[in-house]
Amino acid sequence: MTRPRTFARLASDARPYLPSIVAAVVLGTIGGLLALVPPLGLGRLLNRVVIAHPPNMQELYVVLAIIWGSLIVAAVTNYGSSYLLASSGQSLITRLRVRVFSRLLHLPLGEFDKWRPGELISRFGTDMQMMTDAVTISLPQLITTSVTFLSSFAAMLYLDWLLTCSLIIIAPLVSLAVSRFQLLISGATTRAQQRIADLSANLTEVLSGQRVIKAFGREQYETQRFSSRNEQYFETYMKLTQFIQTQPVVISTLMSSAAAVIIWLSIREVVLGRLNAGNLLTYWLLLVNLVNPINRFAAYMGELSKAVVGSGRVYELLDLPVERADKPGAVALESVRGRIVFENVHFSYEPGSPVLANFSAAIETGEVIALVGPSGAGKTTIVNLVPRFYEPQAGRITLDGIDLAGVRLRDLRDAIAIVPQEAQLFRGSIADNIRYGRLDATDAEVLAAAREANVDEFVAGFPEGYETEVGERGSRLSGGQRQRVSIARAILRDPRILILDEATSALDSHSEALIESALDQLLAGRTTLIIAHRLSSIRRANTIMYIEAGRVIEVGSHESLLASGGAYARLHATQFA
Q: What percent of the chain has pLDDT over 90?
Protein backbone atom coordinates (compact mmCIF):
# COMPACT_ATOMS: atom_id res chain seq x y z
CA MET A 1 0.00 0.00 0.00
CA THR A 2 1.40 3.44 -0.95
CA ARG A 3 2.35 5.91 1.77
CA PRO A 4 -0.12 8.64 0.62
CA ARG A 5 -2.99 6.15 0.70
CA THR A 6 -1.92 4.90 4.13
CA PHE A 7 -1.81 8.48 5.44
CA ALA A 8 -5.24 9.18 3.97
CA ARG A 9 -6.77 6.12 5.62
CA LEU A 10 -5.14 6.90 8.96
CA ALA A 11 -6.49 10.45 8.75
CA SER A 12 -9.97 9.14 7.99
CA ASP A 13 -9.87 6.66 10.90
CA ALA A 14 -8.56 9.38 13.23
CA ARG A 15 -11.45 11.76 12.48
CA PRO A 16 -13.46 10.80 15.62
CA TYR A 17 -10.49 11.89 17.76
CA LEU A 18 -9.98 15.22 15.98
CA PRO A 19 -10.89 17.44 19.01
CA SER A 20 -8.35 15.66 21.22
CA ILE A 21 -5.73 15.79 18.47
CA VAL A 22 -6.28 19.52 17.92
CA ALA A 23 -6.02 20.14 21.67
CA ALA A 24 -2.80 18.10 21.77
CA VAL A 25 -1.34 20.10 18.87
CA VAL A 26 -2.24 23.38 20.60
CA LEU A 27 -0.60 22.27 23.85
CA GLY A 28 2.44 21.00 21.95
CA THR A 29 2.68 24.33 20.13
CA ILE A 30 2.60 26.21 23.43
CA GLY A 31 5.32 23.95 24.82
CA GLY A 32 7.43 24.47 21.71
CA LEU A 33 7.04 28.27 21.80
CA LEU A 34 7.98 28.41 25.49
CA ALA A 35 11.40 27.03 24.53
CA LEU A 36 12.15 30.58 23.29
CA VAL A 37 11.81 32.10 26.77
CA PRO A 38 15.16 30.93 28.29
CA PRO A 39 17.33 32.17 25.35
CA LEU A 40 15.54 35.53 25.20
CA GLY A 41 15.58 35.94 28.99
CA LEU A 42 19.25 35.04 29.40
CA GLY A 43 20.24 37.42 26.62
CA ARG A 44 18.29 40.18 28.37
CA LEU A 45 20.01 39.41 31.69
CA LEU A 46 23.43 39.64 30.07
CA ASN A 47 22.66 43.09 28.65
CA ARG A 48 20.79 44.55 31.64
CA VAL A 49 22.39 42.86 34.63
CA VAL A 50 25.78 41.29 33.90
CA ILE A 51 27.41 43.99 31.76
CA ALA A 52 25.12 46.93 32.62
CA HIS A 53 26.37 49.75 34.89
CA PRO A 54 24.73 49.83 37.31
CA PRO A 55 23.17 46.30 37.14
CA ASN A 56 19.36 46.16 37.29
CA MET A 57 18.80 43.59 40.07
CA GLN A 58 15.02 43.89 39.88
CA GLU A 59 15.27 42.81 36.24
CA LEU A 60 17.18 39.71 37.39
CA TYR A 61 14.36 38.52 39.65
CA VAL A 62 11.62 39.25 37.12
CA VAL A 63 13.40 37.45 34.26
CA LEU A 64 14.30 34.45 36.46
CA ALA A 65 10.67 34.16 37.57
CA ILE A 66 9.51 34.27 33.94
CA ILE A 67 12.04 31.61 32.89
CA TRP A 68 11.10 29.38 35.84
CA GLY A 69 7.40 29.77 35.09
CA SER A 70 7.89 29.07 31.39
CA LEU A 71 9.76 25.83 32.14
CA ILE A 72 6.96 24.65 34.47
CA VAL A 73 4.21 25.56 31.98
CA ALA A 74 6.17 23.93 29.13
CA ALA A 75 6.46 20.69 31.13
CA VAL A 76 2.70 20.69 31.85
CA THR A 77 1.69 21.45 28.26
CA ASN A 78 4.07 18.84 26.86
CA TYR A 79 2.60 16.29 29.28
CA GLY A 80 -0.93 17.23 28.21
CA SER A 81 -0.01 17.02 24.53
CA SER A 82 1.66 13.64 24.94
CA TYR A 83 -1.23 12.25 27.00
CA LEU A 84 -3.94 13.40 24.58
CA LEU A 85 -2.07 12.09 21.55
CA ALA A 86 -1.32 8.79 23.30
CA SER A 87 -4.96 8.44 24.32
CA SER A 88 -6.24 9.23 20.82
CA GLY A 89 -3.64 7.04 19.15
CA GLN A 90 -4.23 4.10 21.46
CA SER A 91 -7.99 4.41 20.96
CA LEU A 92 -7.48 4.37 17.20
CA ILE A 93 -5.16 1.35 17.41
CA THR A 94 -7.55 -0.43 19.78
CA ARG A 95 -10.33 -0.04 17.23
CA LEU A 96 -8.02 -1.15 14.42
CA ARG A 97 -7.02 -4.21 16.43
CA VAL A 98 -10.66 -5.24 16.85
CA ARG A 99 -11.37 -4.56 13.15
CA VAL A 100 -8.41 -6.72 12.10
CA PHE A 101 -9.50 -9.50 14.47
CA SER A 102 -13.04 -9.36 13.12
CA ARG A 103 -11.79 -9.32 9.52
CA LEU A 104 -9.69 -12.44 10.14
CA LEU A 105 -12.74 -14.21 11.58
CA HIS A 106 -14.82 -13.29 8.54
CA LEU A 107 -12.28 -14.27 5.89
CA PRO A 108 -13.47 -16.91 3.45
CA LEU A 109 -11.66 -20.16 4.22
CA GLY A 110 -10.06 -20.11 0.78
CA GLU A 111 -8.48 -16.72 1.54
CA PHE A 112 -7.56 -17.65 5.10
CA ASP A 113 -5.69 -20.75 3.91
CA LYS A 114 -3.35 -18.56 1.84
CA TRP A 115 -1.86 -16.96 4.97
CA ARG A 116 0.64 -18.45 7.37
CA PRO A 117 -0.45 -18.11 11.02
CA GLY A 118 2.93 -16.56 11.87
CA GLU A 119 2.44 -13.86 9.24
CA LEU A 120 -0.94 -12.94 10.68
CA ILE A 121 0.43 -12.93 14.23
CA SER A 122 3.32 -10.68 13.13
CA ARG A 123 1.00 -8.13 11.57
CA PHE A 124 -1.36 -8.31 14.50
CA GLY A 125 1.46 -7.91 17.03
CA THR A 126 4.68 -6.34 15.74
CA ASP A 127 3.11 -3.95 13.21
CA MET A 128 0.54 -2.79 15.75
CA GLN A 129 3.35 -2.25 18.28
CA MET A 130 5.24 -0.01 15.85
CA MET A 131 2.10 2.08 15.44
CA THR A 132 1.73 2.25 19.24
CA ASP A 133 5.32 3.41 19.74
CA ALA A 134 4.89 6.09 17.09
CA VAL A 135 1.71 7.65 18.53
CA THR A 136 2.79 7.44 22.17
CA ILE A 137 6.43 8.55 21.84
CA SER A 138 7.52 9.91 18.48
CA LEU A 139 4.48 11.90 17.35
CA PRO A 140 4.11 14.07 20.52
CA GLN A 141 7.83 14.86 20.52
CA LEU A 142 7.74 15.61 16.80
CA ILE A 143 5.10 18.31 17.30
CA THR A 144 7.02 20.06 20.09
CA THR A 145 10.40 19.88 18.36
CA SER A 146 8.94 21.13 15.08
CA VAL A 147 7.40 24.18 16.81
CA THR A 148 10.66 24.82 18.71
CA PHE A 149 12.60 24.65 15.45
CA LEU A 150 10.29 27.01 13.53
CA SER A 151 9.94 29.54 16.36
CA SER A 152 13.70 29.59 17.02
CA PHE A 153 14.38 30.11 13.34
CA ALA A 154 11.87 32.98 13.23
CA ALA A 155 13.49 34.60 16.30
CA MET A 156 16.94 34.28 14.72
CA LEU A 157 15.65 35.97 11.58
CA TYR A 158 14.34 38.80 13.73
CA LEU A 159 17.67 39.25 15.53
CA ASP A 160 19.84 39.14 12.40
CA TRP A 161 18.17 38.13 9.16
CA LEU A 162 21.31 38.36 7.06
CA LEU A 163 23.22 36.05 9.39
CA THR A 164 20.34 33.57 9.60
CA CYS A 165 19.95 33.41 5.84
CA SER A 166 23.32 31.69 5.67
CA LEU A 167 21.59 28.70 7.33
CA ILE A 168 19.25 28.39 4.37
CA ILE A 169 22.20 27.29 2.24
CA ILE A 170 22.35 24.03 4.20
CA ALA A 171 18.58 23.41 4.05
CA PRO A 172 18.50 21.63 0.62
CA LEU A 173 21.23 19.26 1.76
CA VAL A 174 19.36 18.44 4.98
CA SER A 175 16.11 17.94 3.08
CA LEU A 176 17.81 15.65 0.55
CA ALA A 177 19.41 13.60 3.32
CA VAL A 178 16.11 13.23 5.22
CA SER A 179 14.12 12.16 2.14
CA ARG A 180 16.80 9.70 1.04
CA PHE A 181 17.01 8.10 4.47
CA GLN A 182 13.22 7.82 4.71
CA LEU A 183 13.18 5.73 1.53
CA LEU A 184 15.94 3.50 2.87
CA ILE A 185 14.23 3.13 6.27
CA SER A 186 10.85 2.28 4.69
CA GLY A 187 12.35 -0.43 2.48
CA ALA A 188 14.42 -1.90 5.32
CA THR A 189 11.40 -1.88 7.65
CA THR A 190 9.33 -3.84 5.13
CA ARG A 191 12.08 -6.44 4.80
CA ALA A 192 12.54 -6.65 8.58
CA GLN A 193 8.82 -7.18 9.13
CA GLN A 194 8.82 -9.97 6.57
CA ARG A 195 11.73 -11.61 8.38
CA ILE A 196 9.99 -11.44 11.76
CA ALA A 197 6.87 -12.89 10.12
CA ASP A 198 9.01 -15.80 8.88
CA LEU A 199 10.30 -16.30 12.43
CA SER A 200 6.78 -16.22 13.86
CA ALA A 201 5.57 -18.72 11.27
CA ASN A 202 8.50 -21.03 12.05
CA LEU A 203 7.82 -20.78 15.79
CA THR A 204 4.09 -21.48 15.30
CA GLU A 205 4.85 -24.60 13.25
CA VAL A 206 7.32 -25.92 15.79
CA LEU A 207 5.03 -25.32 18.77
CA SER A 208 2.15 -27.12 17.08
CA GLY A 209 4.33 -29.98 15.81
CA GLN A 210 6.24 -30.91 18.96
CA ARG A 211 5.26 -34.58 18.86
CA VAL A 212 6.34 -35.03 15.24
CA ILE A 213 9.63 -33.23 15.87
CA LYS A 214 10.43 -35.41 18.86
CA ALA A 215 9.27 -38.59 17.14
CA PHE A 216 11.68 -38.03 14.23
CA GLY A 217 14.46 -36.58 16.38
CA ARG A 218 14.50 -33.31 14.46
CA GLU A 219 15.27 -30.96 17.39
CA GLN A 220 18.71 -30.07 16.02
CA TYR A 221 17.38 -29.67 12.49
CA GLU A 222 14.61 -27.31 13.63
CA THR A 223 17.08 -25.38 15.78
CA GLN A 224 19.36 -24.87 12.79
CA ARG A 225 16.42 -23.85 10.60
CA PHE A 226 15.24 -21.34 13.20
CA SER A 227 18.80 -20.10 13.73
CA SER A 228 19.19 -19.48 9.99
CA ARG A 229 15.99 -17.43 9.82
CA ASN A 230 16.93 -15.65 13.03
CA GLU A 231 20.27 -14.72 11.48
CA GLN A 232 18.49 -13.37 8.40
CA TYR A 233 16.27 -11.25 10.65
CA PHE A 234 19.33 -10.04 12.59
CA GLU A 235 21.10 -8.95 9.41
CA THR A 236 18.01 -7.20 8.07
CA TYR A 237 17.29 -5.51 11.39
CA MET A 238 20.89 -4.31 11.74
CA LYS A 239 20.70 -2.82 8.26
CA LEU A 240 17.54 -1.00 9.36
CA THR A 241 19.29 0.11 12.56
CA GLN A 242 22.23 1.33 10.49
CA PHE A 243 19.96 3.55 8.41
CA ILE A 244 18.09 4.87 11.46
CA GLN A 245 21.27 5.61 13.43
CA THR A 246 23.19 7.02 10.47
CA GLN A 247 20.50 9.56 9.62
CA PRO A 248 20.99 11.70 12.78
CA VAL A 249 24.78 11.50 12.38
CA VAL A 250 24.69 12.80 8.82
CA ILE A 251 22.21 15.54 9.64
CA SER A 252 24.07 16.45 12.83
CA THR A 253 27.31 16.75 10.86
CA LEU A 254 25.67 19.07 8.36
CA MET A 255 24.06 21.17 11.08
CA SER A 256 27.24 21.27 13.22
CA SER A 257 29.21 22.51 10.23
CA ALA A 258 26.58 25.19 9.63
CA ALA A 259 26.60 26.08 13.35
CA ALA A 260 30.40 26.54 13.33
CA VAL A 261 30.10 28.93 10.41
CA ILE A 262 27.25 30.78 12.15
CA ILE A 263 29.25 31.16 15.37
CA TRP A 264 32.18 32.61 13.42
CA LEU A 265 29.95 34.99 11.52
CA SER A 266 28.04 36.05 14.66
CA ILE A 267 31.27 36.92 16.51
CA ARG A 268 32.28 38.93 13.47
CA GLU A 269 28.95 40.77 13.71
CA VAL A 270 29.72 41.70 17.35
CA VAL A 271 33.21 42.88 16.43
CA LEU A 272 31.73 45.07 13.69
CA GLY A 273 29.18 46.47 16.16
CA ARG A 274 26.07 45.12 14.43
CA LEU A 275 25.21 42.72 17.29
CA ASN A 276 25.49 43.28 21.07
CA ALA A 277 26.66 40.68 23.61
CA GLY A 278 23.15 39.92 24.94
CA ASN A 279 21.77 39.32 21.48
CA LEU A 280 24.81 37.19 20.69
CA LEU A 281 24.08 34.93 23.67
CA THR A 282 20.40 34.77 22.67
CA TYR A 283 21.35 33.94 19.10
CA TRP A 284 23.64 31.10 20.18
CA LEU A 285 21.02 29.64 22.52
CA LEU A 286 18.46 29.82 19.73
CA LEU A 287 20.97 28.04 17.50
CA VAL A 288 21.10 25.23 20.06
CA ASN A 289 17.27 25.17 19.98
CA LEU A 290 17.55 24.84 16.22
CA VAL A 291 20.17 22.08 16.05
CA ASN A 292 18.82 19.81 18.80
CA PRO A 293 15.31 19.47 17.30
CA ILE A 294 16.78 18.63 13.91
CA ASN A 295 18.78 15.76 15.41
CA ARG A 296 15.73 14.45 17.27
CA PHE A 297 13.51 15.18 14.28
CA ALA A 298 15.48 12.68 12.19
CA ALA A 299 15.02 9.95 14.83
CA TYR A 300 11.29 10.67 15.17
CA MET A 301 10.83 10.59 11.42
CA GLY A 302 12.56 7.20 11.33
CA GLU A 303 10.13 5.82 13.91
CA LEU A 304 7.14 7.34 12.13
CA SER A 305 8.35 5.91 8.82
CA LYS A 306 8.43 2.43 10.40
CA ALA A 307 4.93 3.02 11.77
CA VAL A 308 3.63 3.97 8.32
CA VAL A 309 5.00 0.71 6.92
CA GLY A 310 3.33 -1.17 9.78
CA SER A 311 0.07 0.68 9.17
CA GLY A 312 0.15 -0.26 5.50
CA ARG A 313 0.58 -3.93 6.42
CA VAL A 314 -2.33 -3.71 8.87
CA TYR A 315 -4.54 -2.09 6.24
CA GLU A 316 -3.64 -4.92 3.84
CA LEU A 317 -5.40 -7.26 6.27
CA LEU A 318 -8.39 -4.94 6.49
CA ASP A 319 -8.61 -4.96 2.69
CA LEU A 320 -8.88 -8.74 2.49
CA PRO A 321 -12.25 -10.01 1.23
CA VAL A 322 -14.90 -11.19 3.66
CA GLU A 323 -17.43 -13.95 3.24
CA ARG A 324 -20.08 -12.98 0.74
CA ALA A 325 -22.81 -10.94 2.34
CA ASP A 326 -26.38 -12.13 2.11
CA LYS A 327 -28.03 -11.19 -1.14
CA PRO A 328 -30.85 -8.64 -1.03
CA GLY A 329 -33.99 -10.51 -0.12
CA ALA A 330 -32.08 -13.49 1.27
CA VAL A 331 -34.45 -16.19 2.48
CA ALA A 332 -34.79 -16.72 6.23
CA LEU A 333 -34.66 -20.37 7.31
CA GLU A 334 -37.32 -20.47 9.99
CA SER A 335 -37.90 -24.24 9.97
CA VAL A 336 -35.22 -26.51 8.56
CA ARG A 337 -36.14 -30.12 7.74
CA GLY A 338 -32.75 -31.09 6.32
CA ARG A 339 -33.11 -32.36 2.74
CA ILE A 340 -29.89 -31.54 0.87
CA VAL A 341 -29.51 -31.85 -2.90
CA PHE A 342 -26.33 -31.29 -4.96
CA GLU A 343 -27.11 -30.48 -8.58
CA ASN A 344 -24.24 -30.66 -11.09
CA VAL A 345 -21.83 -28.98 -8.69
CA HIS A 346 -18.38 -27.97 -9.91
CA PHE A 347 -15.70 -26.80 -7.48
CA SER A 348 -11.95 -26.26 -7.59
CA TYR A 349 -9.49 -24.64 -5.20
CA GLU A 350 -7.15 -23.78 -8.04
CA PRO A 351 -8.22 -22.97 -11.61
CA GLY A 352 -7.85 -25.98 -13.86
CA SER A 353 -7.75 -28.51 -11.01
CA PRO A 354 -11.36 -29.50 -10.28
CA VAL A 355 -12.10 -31.28 -7.01
CA LEU A 356 -15.78 -31.83 -7.79
CA ALA A 357 -16.95 -32.17 -11.37
CA ASN A 358 -20.64 -32.41 -12.22
CA PHE A 359 -21.30 -33.76 -8.72
CA SER A 360 -24.91 -34.64 -7.99
CA ALA A 361 -26.42 -36.30 -4.93
CA ALA A 362 -29.64 -36.22 -2.90
CA ILE A 363 -29.68 -36.60 0.90
CA GLU A 364 -33.14 -37.04 2.36
CA THR A 365 -34.40 -35.53 5.61
CA GLY A 366 -33.07 -37.44 8.59
CA GLU A 367 -30.88 -39.66 6.45
CA VAL A 368 -27.41 -40.64 7.70
CA ILE A 369 -24.96 -40.58 4.80
CA ALA A 370 -21.40 -41.91 4.96
CA LEU A 371 -18.99 -40.43 2.44
CA VAL A 372 -16.35 -43.02 1.62
CA GLY A 373 -13.46 -42.94 -0.82
CA PRO A 374 -9.72 -42.53 -1.22
CA SER A 375 -7.87 -39.51 0.11
CA GLY A 376 -8.37 -36.47 -2.09
CA ALA A 377 -11.64 -37.78 -3.53
CA GLY A 378 -13.54 -34.63 -2.41
CA LYS A 379 -15.30 -35.88 0.75
CA THR A 380 -14.24 -32.92 2.93
CA THR A 381 -15.01 -30.48 0.12
CA ILE A 382 -18.57 -31.82 -0.12
CA VAL A 383 -19.32 -31.24 3.56
CA ASN A 384 -17.59 -27.82 3.49
CA LEU A 385 -19.98 -26.69 0.76
CA VAL A 386 -23.04 -27.37 2.93
CA PRO A 387 -22.37 -24.61 5.54
CA ARG A 388 -21.07 -22.38 2.71
CA PHE A 389 -17.46 -22.42 3.89
CA TYR A 390 -16.84 -22.49 0.16
CA GLU A 391 -19.22 -21.83 -2.71
CA PRO A 392 -19.44 -23.87 -5.93
CA GLN A 393 -18.26 -22.31 -9.18
CA ALA A 394 -21.12 -23.98 -11.05
CA GLY A 395 -24.26 -25.88 -10.23
CA ARG A 396 -26.20 -25.40 -7.04
CA ILE A 397 -26.92 -26.90 -3.63
CA THR A 398 -30.43 -26.75 -2.17
CA LEU A 399 -31.71 -27.17 1.37
CA ASP A 400 -35.38 -28.11 1.56
CA GLY A 401 -35.63 -26.97 -2.06
CA ILE A 402 -34.04 -23.54 -1.42
CA ASP A 403 -30.77 -22.63 -3.13
CA LEU A 404 -28.12 -22.17 -0.42
CA ALA A 405 -26.73 -19.19 -2.32
CA GLY A 406 -29.94 -17.30 -1.57
CA VAL A 407 -30.46 -18.06 2.12
CA ARG A 408 -29.32 -16.07 5.13
CA LEU A 409 -25.86 -17.36 6.09
CA ARG A 410 -26.48 -17.01 9.82
CA ASP A 411 -29.67 -19.05 9.61
CA LEU A 412 -27.93 -21.73 7.60
CA ARG A 413 -25.08 -22.17 10.04
CA ASP A 414 -27.42 -22.04 13.03
CA ALA A 415 -28.98 -25.24 11.66
CA ILE A 416 -25.63 -27.06 11.45
CA ALA A 417 -23.25 -28.59 13.98
CA ILE A 418 -19.82 -30.01 13.18
CA VAL A 419 -17.81 -32.54 15.16
CA PRO A 420 -14.32 -32.45 13.60
CA GLN A 421 -11.77 -35.24 13.59
CA GLU A 422 -9.46 -33.19 15.82
CA ALA A 423 -11.57 -31.64 18.60
CA GLN A 424 -10.89 -27.90 18.82
CA LEU A 425 -11.36 -26.52 22.32
CA PHE A 426 -10.77 -22.95 23.46
CA ARG A 427 -9.09 -21.64 26.59
CA GLY A 428 -11.67 -21.65 29.37
CA SER A 429 -13.59 -24.17 31.44
CA ILE A 430 -15.18 -27.42 30.28
CA ALA A 431 -18.61 -25.81 30.77
CA ASP A 432 -17.56 -22.80 28.65
CA ASN A 433 -16.51 -25.07 25.80
CA ILE A 434 -19.77 -27.01 25.86
CA ARG A 435 -21.79 -23.77 26.03
CA TYR A 436 -19.94 -22.61 22.90
CA GLY A 437 -22.56 -24.62 21.00
CA ARG A 438 -25.33 -22.32 22.25
CA LEU A 439 -24.28 -19.30 24.28
CA ASP A 440 -27.71 -18.72 25.84
CA ALA A 441 -27.97 -22.27 27.17
CA THR A 442 -28.73 -22.68 30.88
CA ASP A 443 -26.46 -24.59 33.25
CA ALA A 444 -29.00 -27.39 33.33
CA GLU A 445 -28.95 -27.69 29.52
CA VAL A 446 -25.15 -27.73 29.50
CA LEU A 447 -25.09 -30.50 32.10
CA ALA A 448 -27.73 -32.50 30.21
CA ALA A 449 -25.68 -32.32 27.00
CA ALA A 450 -22.57 -33.33 28.94
CA ARG A 451 -24.33 -36.35 30.39
CA GLU A 452 -25.53 -37.49 26.94
CA ALA A 453 -21.94 -37.33 25.66
CA ASN A 454 -20.67 -39.05 28.82
CA VAL A 455 -18.52 -36.04 29.71
CA ASP A 456 -19.59 -36.36 33.34
CA GLU A 457 -17.82 -39.75 33.44
CA PHE A 458 -14.39 -38.06 33.55
CA VAL A 459 -15.41 -34.66 34.98
CA ALA A 460 -16.36 -36.40 38.22
CA GLY A 461 -12.66 -36.98 38.82
CA PHE A 462 -11.75 -33.27 38.61
CA PRO A 463 -11.82 -31.24 41.88
CA GLU A 464 -13.28 -28.22 40.06
CA GLY A 465 -15.77 -30.26 38.04
CA TYR A 466 -17.11 -28.47 34.98
CA GLU A 467 -15.17 -25.32 35.93
CA THR A 468 -11.90 -27.14 35.24
CA GLU A 469 -9.75 -25.17 32.80
CA VAL A 470 -9.02 -27.12 29.61
CA GLY A 471 -5.78 -25.25 28.81
CA GLU A 472 -4.50 -24.07 25.44
CA ARG A 473 -6.43 -25.98 22.74
CA GLY A 474 -7.64 -28.39 25.42
CA SER A 475 -4.11 -29.53 26.31
CA ARG A 476 -5.12 -30.57 29.85
CA LEU A 477 -7.57 -33.15 28.53
CA SER A 478 -6.90 -36.39 26.70
CA GLY A 479 -7.89 -36.83 23.06
CA GLY A 480 -10.94 -38.84 24.01
CA GLN A 481 -12.00 -36.32 26.64
CA ARG A 482 -11.65 -33.45 24.17
CA GLN A 483 -13.73 -35.32 21.62
CA ARG A 484 -16.52 -35.98 24.12
CA VAL A 485 -16.63 -32.27 25.02
CA SER A 486 -16.84 -31.52 21.29
CA ILE A 487 -19.75 -33.95 20.91
CA ALA A 488 -21.51 -32.43 23.94
CA ARG A 489 -21.15 -29.04 22.26
CA ALA A 490 -22.89 -30.40 19.17
CA ILE A 491 -25.63 -32.02 21.27
CA LEU A 492 -26.30 -28.70 23.01
CA ARG A 493 -26.65 -26.95 19.65
CA ASP A 494 -29.48 -29.35 18.73
CA PRO A 495 -28.86 -29.00 14.95
CA ARG A 496 -31.01 -30.20 12.06
CA ILE A 497 -27.88 -31.04 10.05
CA LEU A 498 -24.90 -32.78 11.60
CA ILE A 499 -21.45 -33.21 10.09
CA LEU A 500 -19.14 -35.82 11.62
CA ASP A 501 -15.56 -35.92 10.39
CA GLU A 502 -14.57 -39.34 11.71
CA ALA A 503 -15.64 -38.11 15.14
CA THR A 504 -14.59 -41.26 17.01
CA SER A 505 -11.17 -41.74 15.43
CA ALA A 506 -9.37 -40.01 18.30
CA LEU A 507 -11.00 -42.15 20.97
CA ASP A 508 -9.66 -45.17 22.78
CA SER A 509 -11.92 -48.20 22.94
CA HIS A 510 -13.25 -47.24 26.37
CA SER A 511 -14.14 -43.68 25.31
CA GLU A 512 -15.54 -44.86 21.99
CA ALA A 513 -17.89 -47.26 23.75
CA LEU A 514 -19.08 -44.49 26.08
CA ILE A 515 -20.19 -42.20 23.25
CA GLU A 516 -21.54 -44.73 20.78
CA SER A 517 -25.00 -44.56 22.35
CA ALA A 518 -24.76 -40.76 22.62
CA LEU A 519 -24.01 -40.50 18.91
CA ASP A 520 -26.94 -42.76 18.10
CA GLN A 521 -29.24 -40.45 20.07
CA LEU A 522 -27.66 -37.38 18.48
CA LEU A 523 -28.15 -38.71 14.95
CA ALA A 524 -31.81 -39.64 15.46
CA GLY A 525 -34.03 -37.51 13.20
CA ARG A 526 -31.16 -35.38 11.92
CA THR A 527 -29.66 -35.25 8.45
CA THR A 528 -26.12 -36.44 9.02
CA LEU A 529 -23.04 -36.49 6.81
CA ILE A 530 -20.21 -38.70 8.05
CA ILE A 531 -16.76 -38.49 6.51
CA ALA A 532 -15.52 -42.04 6.99
CA HIS A 533 -11.80 -42.69 6.83
CA ARG A 534 -12.15 -46.12 8.38
CA LEU A 535 -15.03 -48.32 7.33
CA SER A 536 -15.69 -49.63 10.86
CA SER A 537 -17.14 -46.20 11.76
CA ILE A 538 -19.99 -46.20 9.22
CA ARG A 539 -22.19 -48.90 10.72
CA ARG A 540 -24.81 -46.33 11.71
CA ALA A 541 -25.12 -44.92 8.15
CA ASN A 542 -28.36 -45.58 6.21
CA THR A 543 -26.63 -44.97 2.91
CA ILE A 544 -23.02 -45.05 1.74
CA MET A 545 -21.75 -42.86 -1.06
CA TYR A 546 -18.48 -43.97 -2.57
CA ILE A 547 -16.72 -40.84 -3.90
CA GLU A 548 -13.83 -40.92 -6.31
CA ALA A 549 -12.30 -38.04 -8.29
CA GLY A 550 -15.15 -35.74 -7.29
CA ARG A 551 -17.95 -38.00 -8.49
CA VAL A 552 -20.37 -40.44 -6.87
CA ILE A 553 -19.29 -43.86 -8.09
CA GLU A 554 -21.57 -46.03 -5.98
CA VAL A 555 -24.56 -45.49 -3.66
CA GLY A 556 -26.19 -48.04 -1.41
CA SER A 557 -26.15 -49.81 1.93
CA HIS A 558 -23.09 -51.55 3.27
CA GLU A 559 -24.49 -54.98 2.41
CA SER A 560 -25.64 -54.08 -1.10
CA LEU A 561 -22.32 -52.44 -1.99
CA LEU A 562 -20.38 -55.44 -0.75
CA ALA A 563 -22.62 -57.73 -2.79
CA SER A 564 -22.07 -55.69 -5.95
CA GLY A 565 -18.32 -56.27 -5.75
CA GLY A 566 -17.44 -52.74 -6.91
CA ALA A 567 -15.05 -50.05 -5.68
CA TYR A 568 -16.48 -50.02 -2.16
CA ALA A 569 -16.14 -53.78 -1.86
CA ARG A 570 -12.49 -53.57 -2.99
CA LEU A 571 -11.79 -50.82 -0.43
CA HIS A 572 -13.46 -52.91 2.26
CA ALA A 573 -11.41 -55.92 1.32
CA THR A 574 -8.22 -53.85 1.44
CA GLN A 575 -8.93 -52.53 4.94
CA PHE A 576 -10.07 -55.84 6.39
CA ALA A 577 -7.81 -58.23 4.51
A: 4
pLDDT of residue 72: 93
Beta strand 497-501 with 527-531: parallel, antiparallel or unpaired?
Answer: parallel
Alpha-carbon distance of 246 to 297, in angstroms, equals 13
Distance between CA atoms of 529 and 417, rounded to whole angstroms? 11
Q: Compute how many other C-beta atoms are within 10 angstroms of the C-beta atom of residue 354.
A: 18
Q: How far apart are CA 561 and CA 6, in angstroms?
A: 61
Q: How many CB atoms lie within 10 A of CB 324?
A: 11
Query: How far is the CA of 132 from the CAs of 99, 185, 215, 233, 532, in angstroms?
Result: 16, 18, 42, 22, 49
List all residues 6 or more positions away from 166 whose beta carbon is below 8 Å from its beta carbon: 258, 261, 262, 265
Please provide residue 557's backbone torsions phi and psi, each rounded to the nearest 5 degrees. -80, 170
Number of neighbours of residue 254 by Cβ within 10 angstroms: 17
Whole-model pTM over 0.85: no
Residue 76 pLDDT exceeds 90: yes
Q: Note the helical H segments in 160-218.
A: 161-168, 171-208, 210-215
Q: What is the rounded distance in angstroms from the CA atom of residue 195 to the CA atom of residue 47?
A: 59
How many angstroms from the chain centroid is the CA of residue 366? Answer: 41
136: number of Cβ within 10 Å: 17
